[in-house]
Amino acid sequence: MCKVFQFYLKILLKCGIAILFCIHFSNAESLKEIESFSADFTQILYSSEANAQNQIVYKGKLQALAPSSLRWSYITPIPKEIFIEENTMIIYEPKLKQAIFTQLQENLNLLYLLKNAKKITKNYYEAVILEQKYNVFLENGIPKQIIFNDTLGNKVEILFHNAKINITIDSSIFDFNPKSEIDVIYN
Question: pLDDT tens digits, residue range 76-126?
């Protein structure tokens, strides 16, 4: 009787592992179903100059909410915030006390990029937006890294840490409300 019990226990464990694997795998396959994304990030810009070892490292927090809200909050090397809502981008630099409003040709929201990414391998996707190619890498079904070359030929690498998908995000954090008088520039 003990052997029969062990046999059924092994089957139950294998089924449980299979169910967990299927749940995990389905998360990895559902970039199009991401409705919110929050993560700490490290963004590294590598200079395009020949033989240059120059790089700039930015750190901060990213929050995105479908259908088209995005907020990059840079902490280092200097504080800066980028808000994207629909086709409008606001770059706010508190130390300069200025905000630049720009109309975008196409939505540059992270969720838009993810939803338009094409699967290449299990954990590697590619997206093309405005003729710009983005390489997206996943870990456990969650975006972990994005790599692309900017318009100046610099390589940009964004690493996500403490990433969470489909969590509740208060939509008011995407409202641009500066705390003091600022210069507003329309570009």
Answer: 999 999 999 988 999 999 999 999 999 987 666 788 888 889 999 999 999
Residue 107 DSSP code: -
Q: Where are the beta strands (DSSP E) in the chain?
A: 36-46, 55-65, 69-76, 80-85, 88-93, 98-103, 118-121, 124-129, 132-139, 142-149, 155-165, 183-186
CA distance 6 to 3: 5
- Read off the DSSP letter of residue 106: S
pTM reported for the whole predicted model: 0.77
Q: Nearest-CA neighbor of 110 among 26, 1, 34?
A: 34
Dist. CA 165–CA 147, nearest whole Å: 20
